[in-house]
Design a protein that fits this description.
Bound molecules: NADP nicotinamide-adenine-dinucleotide phosphate
Distance between the termini: 17 Å
Number of strands: 13
Oligomer: single chain
CATH class of the largest domain: Alpha Beta
Number of helices: 12
Largest sheet: 7 strands, mixed
Order of helices and strands: EHEEHEEHEHHEHEHHHHEHEEEEH
Length: about 350
Amino acid sequence: MKQIPIILIGKGHVGKAFIELLVEKREVIKERYSLDFFLQGIFRSTGGAMLPKEEASHLFFFPDNCLESSPWWQNGYSFLDAPVNKLSPGVVVLTTVSSMETGEPGFAYLQQALSSGWHVVTADKGPLINNFRCLRREAERQGLSLKYSTCTAAALPSVDVALTSLAGAEIIRVEGILNGTTNFILSRMEEGVSFEEALVEAQSKGIAEPDPTRDLEGWDTAIKILLLAQTIYDRDFQLAEVTREGIINLPLKEVQVIKRQGLALKLLGIIKRHQKDISLEVKLVPLEKEHPLYFVRGPEKGISFTTDSMSQVTVVGGKSDPRGAAAALIKDMINIFSPM
Ligand SMILES: NC(=O)c1ccc[n+]([C@@H]2O[C@H](COP(=O)([O-])OP(=O)(O)OC[C@H]3O[C@@H](n4cnc5c(N)ncnc54)[C@H](OP(=O)(O)O)[C@@H]3O)[C@@H](O)[C@H]2O)c1
């Protein structure tokens, strides 16, 4: 049984769901993969706790609600102050919300983790947007993994499919419904509900965030398609290179006219490759019934890869919530320590 320490940075919706799911899955993961993950440290914006290995193994998953009152909790203690390079390394799991412009605070955390010999699994897209190749190179140099499935549509397998299942094939086009909120709203509008009403419904069901602007303006899809392109083509792209449209103030009439034509309006993230030219866009596209993403409805997501030698490969589904995000983090951890 391999014992693997985890340091979790960020204990919000996803961080908490991650701890809960890890506790729930602990025995299965041990049995199936011979991997014994234990939580050695947790950090949030206000402070952190690092447990000695013996205590961490013994306590295993410290009850989440007791952490701040535990003897290990230190106000103002940051991951950057933690002596991680002196510990037997494991995996740093990042669930913070970093700036899309600077990548901080997550970028500094990921650099610290990698330079200390720890693998990295991140749900936070911020550090990857402008520093993707730099982090990837650093991980490669150190012989470590940098995993980020959660950043490219969470429980919907996307990066893994591109890198593993389509290995050797040339990916010449990617089309993805990568944002559950916008797809839910478009599906409701097809059913005759206005944009404003559909948005309120999405928020009341917990599908849309309290401030859904980033989703509705297409930024979330743009970031996901950017990360996928950087992954597939190992090239740095800028967010400004992604041509983007959103769904704010989309008239109900427009969706209904498209529906009467037998089509379904979808907000797609698209990567098109023509020889060395690669273009990235987020676009409202009316899909025909024959399109593999036509039937992706409600908060569901889907991604379709067109390749030179494996034809078109499509994946649909995946939960769009903190538990789905947590499951994707755990999947990445398992795949680091128990590769196929
Ligand atoms: N929600 C989803 O379904 C989903 C799906 C895929 C990806 N994601 C991504 O996952 C990440 C987390 O989302 P969330 O919904 O869990 O966010 P959240 O609830 O706002 O949690 C963020 C956590 O980061 C901590 N934090 C903030 N600044 C920090 C710092 N400087 N050092 C250490 N910790 C810091 C916060 O600390 P405090 O607790 O002290 O405030 C909080 O615990 C985001 O990047 C999001 O885009 C989320």
